[in-house]
Write a structure and sequence with these properties.
It is a single chain. The chain is an alpha/beta fold and 118 residues long. Helices cover 36% and strands 25% of the residues. The chain is built from four helices and seven strands. It has one domain (5-114): Response regulator (Rossmann fold, 3-Layer(aba) Sandwich). Helix 2 (38-47) packs parallel to helix 3 (65-73). It has a five-stranded parallel beta sheet, with helices on both faces. Strands 4-5 form a two-stranded antiparallel ribbon. It starts with a strand and ends with a helix.
């Protein structure tokens, strides 16, 4: 039996975060953390045991790029979820999959596949 993959979700809208959690469960992922604030997200990005992270770019007006940097420094994959489209993503992060909100289960699965996680 293989261990379930673990995911970190960084999302400032709690209901959206819960929806992402449900989708991840459908894809056989275990949620290791749901963070709504940058400081907590940075702590989790540096210390939590996860296989992939789903990052909302805009956390109540603050960008989550420092979280992406912390995850990248650990050599772990992440993907961005945003309602603003890819234009908000600086060039140094364009290699990460980008999900346009709202997204479906199949779109999340596709982004996880592009991140090497499905």
């Amino acid at each position: 039996m293989t261990a379930r993959r673990r995911a970190l979700v960084v999302e400032d809208e709690v209901l959206v975060g819960m929806l992402i959690e449900d989708m991840l469960h459908e894809l056989d992922y275990e949620l290791v953390g749901l963070s709504t604030h940058l400081d907590n997200a940075l702590t989790l990005a540096r210390t939590a045991a996860f296989d992939v992270a789903v990052l909302d770019i805009n956390l109540n007006g603050v960008h989550s790029f420092p979280v992406a940097d912390a995850i990248r420094a650990r050599g772990l994959p992440f993907l961005f979820a945003t309602g603003y489209g890819s234009r908000i993503v600086p060039a140094e992060y364009r290699d990460a999959p980008i999900l346009q909100k709202p997204f479906s289960l199949e779109e999340l699965k596709g982004a996880l596949t592009r991140a090497g996680m499905v």
